[in-house]
TrEMBL record:
Protein source organism: Sphingobacterium suaedae
Protein name listed in UniProt: Pectinesterase catalytic domain-containing protein
């Protein structure tokens, strides 16, 4: 970090009288009595009392007998806390030591209380609580836990919860050592090994109050760090953070702080006030690309240095959008840098001449000051750094306002889809201070990034405009509208402008089915000159009226599927065809149903196919739980070996969707899980005694190789030679475990009436990264799996971890040929896209 003033306000000259027992004074410890106990902290003389406690973990229970305000653990002190005020907080002075807020050696699992989602190590209810470490080195005073999701806890274990206004901390390390070794040089006997190498959700501090302040503190964990998350105005001054993903407080100011990023997305989101970095140092240890936000929100980087020997690019989001983030004087590996420059349309760097920069920094007597007071003062003039008088003097001297300067311009909620010649939209901006107060919008100008000919923008004053779509093409366009505030702030929103929509077309020639060369043809003529986007659904039914019809193929997006190739699975069924007329400028019209005149015979459908490239693009995605020979079954299911984690299958939604994936799968299209427990299975037409194989491409949304959201029995089972009705057969299991943070285990399983037994040792591997090519085969009673990825192999791997997979096991004969996929992980960023499925029965 660049040179800063050496602040010597908190030098420990800790003086203690002799204990009543007559032993010599310690470097730290309680005074002689509970009445006149005194400590000297810096130049401050502190008399212990009802609102001034001392905690010293090196003292025995006997040594604190009779000392009313001296404790040897935070847990004991909490029982006697009194609410403080802004002027007289409840101060707890903590001597150097390691303080476990949850017993690390207790084998019992921590579970959430009824009605809550996470278990806590310690909960404190206290207004204006101040925790003060008695050393200017925060690594001397450690508040510790070592539990996380699946490692000593069910749920995202959180070390500490503080309820109350104005919580603060100084000179303290808050550490969850679930996945990190605790090393304490002052007393190595207090060292503690981590629970495991796998990176799990291991959280630090939740709070719910306003005016949260941490100075010279260290926050150490990995996944879901959560340093004082949940408060309103929050300031971290000269703090240190060590973390992976979904970790930082997205509504906080970070001043002159240092960060070690071991994950590519340190913020889940920053959607309220946003996060501000002022004169910070960021050290990235991720591979390839470093981002800031996973979902949404505003991040501001001012005078911040970023360095990395592994990352080649720094951006705001992996999938950027129109939302504005800001930057000024950023350096990457000691060179000037523009964050997000791969997507210049979303880059909005500060300029030194813009008024908005004064919201964050100003110069006084040739020296740069960071305008924390402007950011955090709010209505109650909170001034945690004591800058108010300096700022008022600067304002008086220059006549330039340095307070009540907004930091965010955004749009009020609105629709994002407009139809030409029908809809219009009033866009209303909101101008906000960082503390959340709304200001009059003032002068705003309006521009469109592209497609200006597709919309008219009419300014209305008061930060408003009306957007009128005038698109005159057949295809929709996405247009970004910018509101540009006179200060330099910007709001942006992307609108989908669709052409004028007409009534669905009628038929000049009604749909008709004809069979030729094993293909059913649907012919019709629309009363329209626009491109045809009619939706056609092909179904099988045992009855001619279609009462039990099950869809088996459907038109892909914007393409009418007019042909249906018959297969042996169609024998004995009526084929129904539902035609819903549509063109490029209309919605769907009323359906017209047709049925082929007769039930199909084996002679009409031909012999069975022993090799099948599954046409996922035309496969229906609605839930279909029935196990019927020749059909795919789609549903969701919670296997018995996952039920200890008490999750429920959501049957109100489709379990799968066909489309574009997210995160690591955002460049691919295929079948993706939409609910936890998504399952898809194929039941062949007859028993199958011979060999078989399945190959497919898996594209995990997770990019580090961990595959799934957490190690809570989250896995992907791929069935082969399977009897789905009896849950009997074989499977490959790909599962996230607590062993590694960036690897999964591959293992072969035998299912017998729902009971599972492993038939190969697990192989830990980094291969499960996009794209991962997997082949599973049973040949001559030998089950084999091969898996590789085209993503660059990891050069440095822990012992026992592989870059590829080859597994084998001897198996018996099942007499079945079913295949399927069962995904028990969370969805969205924890899902896996599946494509290019090919099945062979020999």
């Amino acid at each position: 970090m660049r040179q800063t003033r050496q602040i010597a306000l908190y030098i420990l000259i800790f003086i203690v009288t002799l204990l009543a027992s007559g032993r010599q004074s310690r470097a730290y410890g309680p005074a002689a009595s509970s009445v006149d106990s005194v400590i000297y902290y810096g130049e401050q003389r502190v008399v212990l009392g009802p609102k001034s406690f001392l905690i010293d973990g090196s003292l025995s229970d006997q040594e604190i007998v009779g000392k009313k305000y001296v404790f040897n653990s935070l847990q004991k002190a909490v029982q006697y806390l009194k609410d403080g005020t802004a002027s007289e907080p409840m101060r707890v002075y903590i001597a150097p030591y390691v303080y476990w807020l949850d017993d690390p050696d207790d084998p019992a699992l921590r579970v959430p209380k009824p009605g809550e989602n996470v278990p806590f190590g310690l909960e404190i209810d206290c207004q204006w609580l101040s925790l003060i470490g008695l050393s200017d080195d925060p690594s001397d005073v450690i508040l510790a836990a070592n539990r996380g999701q699946t490692m000593g806890a069910k749920g995202n274990f959180t070390m500490l919860r503080i309820r109350g206004e104005g919580p603060s901390a100084e000179n303290i390390t808050f550490g969850n050592y679930c996945n990190i070794d605790l090393v304490y040089p002052k007393n190595p006997s207090l060292n503690k090994k981590k629970r495991g190498a796998a990176i799990v959700q291991a959280q630090l501090v939740f709070c719910d109050g306003d005016r949260v302040f941490a100075r010279n503190c260290r926050f150490i964990s990995r996944l879901n760090l959560c340093p004082f998350v949940g408060g309103k105005r929050t300031l971290f001054d000269r703090c240190y953070f060590e973390l992976t993903d979904d970790a930082l407080n997205g509504n906080a100011v970070y001043l002159r702080s240092t960060f070690h990023f071991y994950g590519s997305k340190p913020f889940w989101g920053a959607s309220r006030t946003g996060a501000v970095f002022l004169d910070c140092d960021i050290h990235s240890f991720v591979e390839s690309k470093q981002y800031f936000v996973k979902t949404a929100g505003q991040v501001t980087l001012i005078d911040t240095d970023i360095d990395s020997q592994t990352a080649s690019y720094v951006g705001w989001k992996a999938l950027p959008d129109a939302e504005s983030s800001y930057q000024y004087q950023i350096r990457f590996n000691s060179k000037p840098y523009t964050v997000g420059h791969h997507h210049p349309q979303h880059v909005h760097p500060f300029l030194a001449t813009q008024d908005a920069l004064l919201a964050y920094r100003f110069t006084h007597s040739g020296k740069v000051y960071y305008n924390v007071y402007n950011l955090l003062a709010g209505k109650d003039q909170w001034d945690p750094l004591g800058y108010r008088s300096l700022i008022e003097a600067q304002e008086h001297a220059t006549g330039i306002p340095l307070t009540n300067i907004p930091t965010q311009l955004r749009f009020a909620p609105h629709n994002t889809r407009l139809e030409a010649k029908k809809d219009s939209l009033c866009l209303q901006t909101q101008l906000l201070l960082y503390s959340g107060e709304v200001l009059p919008p003032g002068s705003v100008s309006w521009t469109a990034e592209r497609g200006q000919k597709s919309v008219n923008i009419r300014p209305m004053g008061d930060g408003r405009c009306v957007v009128i779509p005038v698109l005159d093409t057949d295809t929709a366009q996405h247009i970004t509208i910018y509101a540009n505030h006179v200060s330099g702030l910007r709001a942006a929103t992307t609108l989908e402008i669709v052409p004028q929509q007409y009534d669905a077309p009628s038929f000049l020639k009604s749909p008709k089915l004809q069979l030729a060369d094993g293909i059913l043809h649907c012919s019709y003529t629309l009363d329209s000159s626009y491109p045809d986007e009619t939706r056609i659904t092909w179904s099988r039914s045992r009855t001619s009226d279609g009462r039990d019809a099950i869809p088996v193929q459907i038109s892909p997006d914007k393409y009418p599927l007019k042909q249906y190739r018959l297969t042996a699975a169609d024998s004995g069924y009526y084929i129904h065809c539902r035609v819903e007329p549509k063109h490029i400028r209309s919605g769907l019209g009323l359906p017209v149903d047709q049925v082929f005149a007769t039930r199909l015979t084996p002679a009409e459908v031909g012999p069975p196919d022993y090799s099948c490239a599954v046409p996922l693009a035309t496969m229906p995605t609605q839930n279909q739980p029935q196990l019927i020979p020749g059909f795919w079954s789609l549903d969701a299911y919670a296997p018995a070996d996952t039920r200890e984690y008490d999750w429920q299958v959501d049957t109100s939604k489709q379990a799968w969707y066909y489309g574009v994936g997210v995160d690591g799968a955002m460049c691919d299209t295929g079948f993706v899980q939409a609910v936890q427990g998504a399952r898809m299975r194929y039941t062949p037409l007859a028993r199958h005694q011979g060999d078989m194989s399945i190959q497919f491409t898996a594209v995990p949304a997770k990019t580090a190789g961990q595959g799934f959201g957490s190690a809570r029995a989250q896995y992907l089972d791929v069935y082969i030679k399977f009897d789905h009705s009896r849950l009997t057969g074989y499977a490959l299991r790909i599962i996230r475990t607590t062993k590694y943070a960036d690897a999964v285990d591959f293992q072969l399983l035998h299912y017998k009436d729902g009971h599972i037994s492993p038939i190969s040792p697990p192989v830990s591997t980094t291969v499960f990264r996009a794209p991962c090519y997997i082949q599973i085969a049973i040949t001559d009673h030998k089950l084999s799996v091969k898996a590789i990825t085209s993503t660059e192999n990891r050069k440095s791997l822990p012992s026992g971890v592989r870059n590829d997979v080859m597994l084998e096991a001897v198996v018996g004969e099942t007499g079945h040929g079913g295949v399927g996929f069962q995904h028990t992980g969370t969805v969205g960023s924890g899902a896996t896209l599946i494509k290019d499925i090919v099945i062979d029965w020999n």
